[in-house]
Amino acid sequence: MKEETAPFRVTPMTSLTLDRFQSIKNIPSLPEQIDNVLIATETSSCMDYSIVEMIQYDPAIAIAVLRVANTPLYGYAGQISSLQQAAGLLGPGSIKNIILRTPILEQFPVDSCEALPLDYVQLWIHSGITAIIAGALARLMGGIESDVCFTSGLIHETGAIALSVCFPDEFAKVQSFANANQLGITEAGKQVLGFSHLEITGEIMDAWGFPAQLSHVILQCEAPDKNKTHWKLAGVVALAKSLASEWGFPSCIKDIRSDQQERLLGLLGITEKELQQWEPELKKYTEFALDTMKLP
Predict the structure, then answer these.
(1) Is residue 10 part of a domain?
(2) Position 151 in a domain
(3) What is the pTM of this model?
(4) In this structure, how many other beta carbons lie within 10 angstroms of the beta carbon of residue 281?
(5) How far apart are CA 76 and CA 88, in angstroms?
(6) Lowest-confidence pick of 69-78, 220-229, 255-264
(7) Domain count for the chain
(8) What's 269's domain CATH number?
(9) Would you say residue 15 lies in a domain?
(10) Residues of the domain holding 159
């Protein structure tokens, strides 16, 4: 992980603790996403396993599908690291039931905040674009699990969603501190809460019985390190996130900076020329993803 860059450290400013996130039962999705998926499933055969194409750009539904697939019921507890594996294991009927149980963002109280604290449509688009770029980069590089890269890119902001929805006041404090001190949300979270949104994602994954591989990738996707397990997968996700932002699909949560791209290319052994050669293909994938998501 990267060295601390903040000029000073403070005692956590809230009483919120990381273990509170172990009790979260689900992550809400956008109402438009749930409507789109349910309409699509109504016209699909119960044996149509291409249903993964309908859910593959929704982080909330994806993480819910992964949670069910990693339960002992299906015989692969703690072993399913990709949405594609999970969808193949569960099948369309089970996935539709999961979608029906997925809450929508509009149903969540926002306590003292006047509005939901994130631009969730922007975050969903960024997550989907990061996922498609990460999967494609892994295939172009070769020797890397592209489905795991895709899935990690899709759900890497789960902690931020959970924090903003379940504890909006605390999330607002993190955002304000980040803006006031010109920090990324990861460092601001550590300063204000004592932990980052990436650690929240890891806590949720551990509580839900996910493979350690996914947690390792997401916990270091802001600053991959060759000394860490699964650093190459994390590096691919970090590069995909950087490219998504550079190509007009930034997250509403500022963390990975475009000036880190050169370091990420060096870490992964990708030359500028190779990236330029891959760019047209990668951008075609982003256009396909945008069309499939059908978000405003």
Answers:
(1) no
(2) yes
(3) 0.89
(4) 11
(5) 12
(6) 255-264
(7) 1
(8) 1.10.3210.10
(9) no
(10) 25-293
